Amino acid sequence: MNREDLIEALQSFEQRQVLEGIEHLYLFGSFARGQATSRSDVDIAFDVRPEFELKFSLIDQ
Prior knowledge:
- The chain is α+β, with helices and mostly antiparallel strands.
- The protein has one domain.
- About 50% of the residues lie in helices and about 20% in strands.
- It has three helices and two strands; from the N terminus they run αβαβα.
- A two-stranded antiparallel sheet has the order 1-2.
- The N and C termini lie far apart (about 40 Å).
- The relative contact order is 0.19.
C-alpha cells in the first residue's frame, strides 16, 4: 500500500464514521513523509469525541 492509498482509506473511514467515537485520524511517520519501505509500519493517531472519552473513563473506575 502506498501513501496515497493509505490516506484515501483513512479518509473513507472518517467519512463513513466506521470508527464510532473517533473524530479525526492522523497519519504520521514514514508513510506520511513518503519514505515508507516494505518493513515500515503504519503510524496513526486519533482524536476521540469527549463523550467517548468519558465513557471509557467511567468504565475504568
